[in-house]
Specification:
about 20% strand, about 35% helix, 7-stranded mixed β-sheet, alpha/beta, 6 helices
Length: about 180
Amino acid sequence: MNLWGLILKCAGWSVDITVPYREKTVICVAPHTSNWDFIMGLLAYRSLGRKANFLMKKFWFFFPLKYLMKALGGIPVNTESSQSLTSVIIDDFKKAKYLNLAVTPEGSRSAVDKWRTGFLTIAYNAQVPIQLGVIDFKNKKVLIKKEFIPSGNNAVDLSEIRKYYSDFKEAALYPDKFIA
């Protein structure tokens, strides 16, 4: 057991990730109601010897914090750029040997009815699967048990993914902030 797994075990958490290891994948994580989602997901993924990447505002990549952010898998996002972030990430997938990008389609820790679809566009155009992750605070377990292949029809795909997550409302740290 590595340090990441030891920390999880000491906190009483377990990991149930049965999807295959992929060098390139989008990891959809929901519900997302707390900053603890990031920490628990990071610990779980690293406990398996895997590295997940995540998007974060470029603002946070200043000296010396930028070295920690990059080591943890952070990808700086320039929010003032006129270039489409989705296009940039699709290009990153095509160039990279390894990219496991964790995204939260809710885009906020607050209750939102409209989920973002950029992750679907990215996965479809980069021709990578989407692995559906859950940080289950109720049962202290991190799950990634289902893989989804996007069809290119974002409305249909998002509906199927939201249906999957509808069973996990009570898994959220703050269930009242999750709308599947």
